[in-house]
């Protein structure tokens, strides 16, 4: 996994890094007899461990079906005062959803594509509405589905090993799992930038961006978990105080400026637009090395995904989480009916040629009428949330 975690790799290698991650995501783990999820009561806390380290704890449907009922049970249990979620191993919290199972469901004709997104988003909503304090220990790779398992909870604790990204536009998808809710609520146009380019944030930058609420050294995570589970009948405030204490004690990279700080004015200006085409025009007109780099990155992405994502974030900015998830379920099914998701999986996972042939191939060919159809109600098949 050096390909994923090595510092300072050129942006041109992003597809190679994505390929390595997705290869891990595609591993079924059938040879491993370990349970995919560990659900334990430790002291005052319910602890969820996503336990597929060889597959970077990629989230599959059976994991969702184990976590959701236990989360609801702990939420109602008077002896459970907080919920902690983490990933097994040192490499990942959760690097995303099980892409292979979803992409192969079209050939087999089963319901995985419908059921996975429906139940995953229902779980995302349960996390976002959980009445008990929810603490996600997001050490290692946290992408896609892993973001959905963490970002809607009360607390997200990053470490120097955290690697955050929403790389879906390179896969013919869109930053789902409630991305349309949390991304436009980041500072300025940062969320639009992260969503459209798939830019990766590492370590303390994940907290400085507002994705994580706290930052601690990886070696302190076990002690933090112990301190949390040993609290006596804690409130959300008590949990917050412990996390604040660890965060304040951590001096690692404290003086380091946010990696995008020098570019934020440009990001806010260039990514403020009424259309994806307008962003492209602004980047071309600006012509700075930073703008041209973004142009090069965006040119590799699915035009359909880019336009879908741009509209998703614009509309999501004024929606609540439930409304966003209903919208995103409609978009997920549009992607499953379309071409680019399967082409994205082909180019990154199967043929590994990093030469996607997107259809349509240009932004101009992705019509408003087509986009409207992606956002349309599915009627009785719409996602229904409590």
From TrEMBL:
Superkingdom classification of source: Eukaryota
Major subcellular location class: mitochondrion
Any one Gene Ontology molecular-function term assigned to this protein's record: 3-hydroxyisobutyryl-CoA hydrolase activity
Entry GO terms, CC: mitochondrion
Entry keywords, A to Z: Branched-chain amino acid catabolism, Hydrolase, Mitochondrion
Pathway: Amino-acid degradation; L-valine degradation
Cellular location(s): Mitochondrion
InterPro entries listed in its UniProt record: ClpP/crotonase-like_dom_sf, ECH_dom, HIBYL-CoA-H
GO process annotations (BP): L-valine catabolic process
Reaction catalysed by this enzyme: 3-hydroxy-2-methylpropanoyl-CoA + H2O = 3-hydroxy-2-methylpropanoate + CoA + H(+)
Keyword Mitochondrion listed: yes
Domain Enoyl-CoA hydratase/isomerase, residue spans: 46-375
Enzyme Commission designation: 3.1.2.4
Family (UniProt): Belongs to the enoyl-CoA hydratase/isomerase family.
Role summary: Hydrolyzes 3-hydroxyisobutyryl-CoA (HIBYL-CoA), a saline catabolite. Has high activity toward isobutyryl-CoA. Could be an isobutyryl-CoA dehydrogenase that functions in valine catabolism. Also hydrolyzes 3-hydroxypropanoyl-CoA.
Protein name per the record: 3-hydroxyisobutyryl-CoA hydrolase
UniProt source species: Anolis carolinensis (Green anole)
């Amino acid at each position: 996994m050096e390909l994923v975690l090595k510092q300072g790799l050129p942006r041109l290698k992003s597809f190679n890094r994505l390929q390595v991650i997705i290869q891990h995501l595609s591993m079924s783990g059938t040879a491993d007899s370990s349970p995919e999820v560990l659900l334990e009561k430790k002291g005052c806390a319910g602890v969820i461990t996503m336990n597929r380290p060889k597959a970077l704890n990629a989230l599959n449907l059976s994991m969702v079906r184990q976590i959701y009922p236990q989360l609801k049970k702990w939420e109602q249990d008077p002896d459970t005062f907080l919920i902690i979620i983490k990933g097994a191993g040192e490499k990942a919290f959760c690097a995303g959803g099980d892409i292979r199972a979803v992409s192969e469901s079209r050939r087999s004709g089963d319901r995985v594509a419908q059921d996975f997104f429906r139940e995953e988003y229902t779980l995302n909503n349960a996390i976002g509405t959980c009445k008990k304090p929810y603490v996600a220990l997001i050490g290692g790779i946290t992408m896609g589905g892993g973001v959905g398992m963490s970002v809607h909870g009360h607390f997200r604790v990053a470490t120097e090993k955290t690697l955050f990204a929403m790389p879906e536009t390179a896969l013919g998808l869109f930053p789902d799992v409630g991305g349309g809710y949390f991304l436009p609520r980041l500072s300025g146009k940062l969320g639009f930038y992260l969503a459209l380019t798939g830019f990766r944030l590492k370590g303390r930058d994940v907290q400085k961006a507002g994705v994580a609420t706290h930052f601690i050294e990886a070696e302190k995570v076990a002690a933090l978990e112990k301190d949390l589970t040993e609290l006596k009948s804690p409130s959300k405030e008590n949990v917050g105080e412990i996390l604040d204490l660890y965060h304040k004690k951590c001096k690692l990279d404290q003086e380091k400026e946010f990696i995008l700080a020098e570019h934020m004015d440009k990001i806010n200006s260039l990514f403020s637009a009424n259309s994806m085409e307008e962003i492209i025009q602004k980047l071309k007109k600006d012509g700075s090395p930073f703008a041209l780099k973004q142009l090069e990155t965006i040119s590799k992405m699915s035009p359909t995904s880019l336009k879908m994502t741009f509209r998703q974030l614009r509309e999501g900015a004024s929606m609540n989480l439930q409304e966003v998830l209903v919208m995103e379920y409609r978009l997920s099914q549009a992607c499953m009916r379309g071409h680019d998701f399967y082409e994205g999986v082909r180019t990154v996972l199967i043929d590994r040629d990093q030469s996607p042939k997107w259809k349509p191939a240009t932004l101009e060919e992705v019509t408003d009428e087509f986009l409207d159809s992606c956002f349309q109600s599915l009627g009785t098949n719409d996602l229904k949330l409590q």
